[in-house]
Amino acid sequence: MRLHKISALAGVSILAFAACSSSGASTAPSAGGGGESAAPPASKGELTLGVSLPLSGGAAADGQPTLKGAQLEVDRINAAGGIGGYTIKLLPLDHAVAGKYNEQQAAQDMQTFVADDAVIGVVGPYNSAVAKVQIPISNSAGLAQCSPANTNTGLTKPEEGALDLRKDFPDRINYIRVAATDSLQGPAMAIYDYDTLGLKNLLIVDDVTTFGKGVADTFQTKFEELGGTVVLRQGAPADTTDFNGIINSQAVEASPPDGVYYGGVVTSGAGLFLKQLRQAGLDIPFTGPDGIVNGSVNDDGSLIKIAGADAAANSYGTIAAIGDFPAKAEFDAAFEEHFSADSDFKTPGAYSGPANACAVVLLEALKAAVDGGAADMAGIREAVRAYASDPANSFDTVLGPISFDENGDTTVPFISFYEVDTAATGGADWVFKEQQSFGE
Amino acid sequence: MTSSTVTAEARPNRFLVARRSGVGPYLFILALTVVMYFVLGPKQFVNALTIGAIYALVALGYTMVYGIIELINFAHGDVFMVGSFVSLFVLTNILGATGPAPDLATIVYQLVVTFALTMSVVGVLGVTIERFAYRPLRNAPRLAPLITAIGISFILQNVVQLIYGPSPINTPQVIPPSARVDIAGVSIGWINIFIIVTAISLMFGLQLFVSRTKVGRAMRSTASDREAASLMGVDINRTIAITFLIGSALAGAAGVVQGLYFGNITSALGFQSGLKAFTAAVLGGIGNITGAAIGGFMIGFVEVTAANFGFFVWAQAAVFMILIVTLVFRPSGLFGQQLGERA
Amino acid sequence: MSAASSPAATSPRGVRSRIGAFSDRHRSTSVFFGVGLAAMALPLIVLLPPFNSFSGQGVWMDGFTIAGIFILLALGLNIVVGMSGLLDLGYAAFFAIGAYTYALAASPFTGIEISFWPMLLIGAVMAAVFGIMLGAPTLRLRGDYLAIVTLGFGEIVPITILNLSRYTEGPNGIGGITAPSIGDFRFPTTGNPWPYYLVMLGLIIVSMMLIYRLQDSRLGRSWMAVREDELAAAANGINTVTTKLLAFALGASTAGLAGVFLAAKLQTVTPNLFRFDVSFTVLAMVVLGGMGNIWGVAVGAFIIFMIQSVLLKQLNIFFDNVDVPILSDIDFLQYQFLLYGIALVGMMLLRPEGLFPSQRRKRELHTEEDADFGEHGDPMGASPE
Fold it and tell me: Which residues of chain B are within 8 Å of residue A271 when distances are taken between CB atoms?
């Protein structure tokens, strides 16, 4: 059944592509041209699916492929006639300021979404620090928000402080995510490092952010529990450009590490760190969380491009989502076909699939809401939230069937492992190695 | 200068400087260097010297400009950043370099051309900035040129970002990072040796230029008393322009070195590096060329020491603490204010 | 010395000067009605085209509230930079101190629940205390050294917050901060923007009134004297260090106030919110608005904030849809600092008194500027007094 859906997706995406030749960031369903023929006669108007991601500057490598994952689904839905007479408008708001995510801008964007009655749900954000300022707002307004990529445990788990975020309505879940949490992502990589890669002595560096420090902490705890030794743990704040002081430190000299774990994202300096490691002659495995898995050697701002393809060899990263989902080949093909006219990010990123899944979840919930008779905007928004966050519902997404637990976390968490392949077709890129399910 | 530029509190420093400039600070530095060598070990010591050399080269520009027109040239860090991008342009677009050069002759050729072109272009950039942004404000309240300098800094950073994008850009490392040499059992990269030697040579050259040549004398006299210098026939505008030319050219050299050493440059480089280099200049006694150079190396040591002992997150805060403490307790820096000897 | 000259030196001309004369005499009244009228008009203006097509009234008002935070910051920095002539480049540090003061006093992290209203005052006092602690040793330094010290301080504060996780939750920031409430009415996070908007309005009016009073007081005249000629001021018996210290403390306290409000509005604070770009943005607001002019910086701050949060965004959306070759690829939001840079330089070279100059500042800046400068390499020719 799912395969059927995906092939339909691939088929209609050609239509959609023809309809909107410029599939730029803010593609609204194209009003003119071939799109009209597919629209149903009884159009009830337009509903909006918000997207809140960092889309510009160095963060574009994270945000753009993720946005396009959601856009693919919206274009497909519109090409197929919309939902219950509504066409769906995708409204991406960029909260990158000067190339990095900015919490205050993100909070304002969320205020924009909640104030707009037509917004039925929001896909995003990408960074956990951003989610911390957005959740109080979306929770207060009861707006469904689905993050493809947030992994910080404190966003959902009550014992980790999630109740502080949804203070207005502690029992009303509006924030759901398809990504697994760092309580899985960090330890999973620790096991992978220790067992699969056989690393026993690690140098751990984090970027001193909500995400980076958090995931490095869970990683380190598990790694030490397994019997591994941490040669040196250092924080390197987000604007660090010179890592040589860490790389050459006496602790590293005294007991040379056989691997590195970097807890952080590429905009914080992962690429620079990797490059400087290699220059110092440390050709040891470089491992990290999803923050370092961001695009091929051709994408601006990607780890592989910054470090250089040769230096990026022997790098491993996790993705907090299923990597080898059943319809991956079809999804990739549809994605590449749909965005072939774009100047950049033509190939799916690691979170394109999850963003697509988020869009599917929210739009399926919208369909249920409209079918259920919700007519006014407030009713639709609440029905979408209730349906999407209901643990009883299951969603048939490109990643496979997904449902959410009572906190809004996915019940089918996966951690996937990626490795840089310098011989990949089209230039060095991250390739899927294996995945691990943590579902019950 | 109007009388308002010299505060009552600052005046006595002139006498203090005269008394302080002895061998004491130099002995202190020597002792510190030896201690650092044993504390950090040879590898980190070389690392600290290398990044210290870059800071020192940038600090020279701050110190010269401040010495001569008492302006904190905020844009100087970004001039350094522009230097790194000019060297990228020269290496890739003019010389067609993509990575390590195949033989020594090519390395020498590429380096000579890159340094010459970058230093000239960046030097001219500095003069241009001075001519159009600072000179019209030379007699305005002190705040005005300072704010202009901040504005220029934004402009430079964003224009580079418009052209090259905000992500780090790879630069060709003409001297292969893997080329190393064993000195007394310690493996040291040729690139480190090259950077340290280049920086120190440039500094000595500058010191000689300032102390021995006629232009240098004009610079010193302008720094110590612009009015008197003018009366003695020194062309003030030309002298200030030359100061900017040399300071910016040195920042350009630092930019080349930055690209060669790290293999990456970004448009955001200027702000942080500029601040650290400025700290170096203050530490050494702003206006003092030797002081700035030594200050640069000291900042390098502070950073590397913090990183070495697991306090890298505090490295930046430590640098700024040094800045504040120096300014509060010894505003004339370790070596006093030589160039002009005016507090 | 121009500190002694009266503001009536300009020749009266028509209604404008009569309003000016009135507002000179009744500062508090004019502030109250001026700001009040503007604040009442704004929510109505955004209902008109083209503003209503960008976003709804609620979103606009939320934006105005955030703009209000920047107006407060600009007003405070204006005391330091504009009135006293001290360049403070680390102003965001005091903003952070205010915000974290409230975050620690009213969040689950500490388990304490102190009401928002007294915390406004306490946050301001905390920031002022830090201002004095930083200022006391450093204010005797010369202006440009002071700029660097404050810049360093502005960097140290977020780094310290980031790394003292035990007391600040480090990079995670402090979440779940209590929203203000009046009696049983708790300020809503979304939906009704009026409570925050009105409180911000009140803060701005009170701050502006107080700052006007200060400006006209003995202290205000001392600030001006110190700004124009520190030696002469000292010779006239002004305690320059105390004068500067008070400017620093009062400027910091305004930032503290803004910080408390921000924490209550966002309900989350992270060290990231207080980096140097905030300091420089506020500086650009003060410079563009007209250093020393209270109304000028308030309006300047408002306009700049609106440009960066609305105009640039709308330009992005516009060019995304229109598909002009180069312009469509430029992300205007990313280049707000390029605009600041051009504006700062252009302003200093062409109109150093700002877009809305204060009369005194204008006179002061132009006497010096109009003097024969530079070309002959003879700086003494420019001696103004």
Answer: 168, 264
CATH 3.40.50.2300 fits A182-319+416-437, yes or no: yes
In a domain, B335, yes or no: no
Query: Strand (E) positions, A98-213?
Result: 100-101, 119-123, 145-147, 175-177, 201-206
The architecture that CATH gives domain C32-382 is Orthogonal Bundle (1.10)
pLDDT in tens, B20-62: 456 777 788 888 889 888 888 888 999 999 999 999 999 999 9
Indicate the pTM of the whole model: 0.85
Do A399 and A168 meet the contact criterion of CB atoms below 8 Å apart?
A: no
Average pLDDT for chain A: 84
pLDDT of B248 reads: 96
Identity of the residue numbered B315: A
Q: Do A136 and C175 touch (CB under 8 A)?
A: yes
Q: Is A332 exposed, middle or buried (0-12, 13-18, 19+ CB in 10 A)?
A: middle
Q: Domain A2-180+325-409: which topology?
A: Rossmann fold (3.40.50)
Q: Do domains A2-180+325-409 and A182-319+416-437 have the same CATH topology?
A: yes
Query: Which residue is closest to A59 within chain C, CA to CA?
Result: C334
Q: Do B170 and A308 touch (CB under 8 A)?
A: yes
Strand-strand pairing, B186-189 and A201-206: unpaired
Instruction: Report if residue B267 sits inside a domain.
Output: yes
Backbone φ and ψ for B169, nearest 5 degrees, come out as -110, 140
Q: For residue range C111-124, what is the model confidence (pLDDT) as tens digits?
A: 888 999 999 999 99
Classified as helix, coil or strand, C110 is coil
pLDDT in tens, C146-198: 888 898 999 999 999 999 888 888 888 888 888 998 888 888 888 788 899 99
With contact defined as 3+ CB pairs under 8 Å, the chains touching B are A, C
Answer yes or no: is pLDDT of C372 > 50: no
**In-domain check, residue B239:** yes
Residue B94 belongs to a domain with what CATH number?
Answer: 1.10.3470
